[in-house]
# Entry
Amino acid sequence: MADQRITVITGGASGIGRATADRLARDGDRIVVLDVNAEGAETAVEALRAGGTAADAMALDVADDQAVEDVFDRIESEIGPVHGVVHAAGVLQNAITAERMDRAEADRIMDVNYRGTWSVNVAAARRMKARQAGAIVNLASINSFAVLPIPSYTVSKVAVKQLTELFAVEYGIHGIRVNGVAPTYTITPAIQARIDSGHRDPEAIRNSGALKMLVRPHHIADGIAFLLSDQAAAITGVTLPIDAGWCAAVSYNSYVAAVEGFGQ
# Structure
């Protein structure tokens, strides 16, 4: 299809990125999966192709600025002009005090989560400018709105939210929309592994939001699909919490806990 939307998904081999690839495939997009896990990207693409979706896989470490430029050059020359980008690549961190934070781990988190966001957004938008159209969705986090004891991850996700707003203004004049989603604890393979290892409590996660539910990758993918769509044509610079009401519940419940006799 000559007018088929080409959407690039970083971190598309698993978790939210993989769910988003499946969701956008149902919308008829041609999908390009980028991931540092080359084998995982190929597996994701094989599944997409088996379902009838045109898809391609390429290896990419988003912290490598030149590699990001090279892969976007390759996509545009071999596949076609990029219409949408979902920047889902990122690394997690377990809770720890800032004093005990390992510097090498901190640097890697910032390289991937902050610098990777900057590099992917700039590389994509630079090419979209020539066509005066495009849409980008970044993965921020509930950590973008509230401080949690995850030092480098929290800082990196605040940076993602701020970059999203900055790019929305810088590229809006070129018809490019830049938004973000802020997932709560989402039951991805990475979070499930932390649950299995005892670093996360699934019942605490379930009960932390207003809706008392576990958020799954497909919930985030649905929000991303909306922000990429023409239905969101007037929306840019927004970071949308998809959190089962976590942001609202945390401050509300903290206040209630401090007020003796509330609700009696």
Notes: The domain at 6-188+214-245 is CATH 3.40.50.720 (Rossmann fold). DSSP finds nine helices and seven strands in the chain. The longest helix spans residues 103-129.
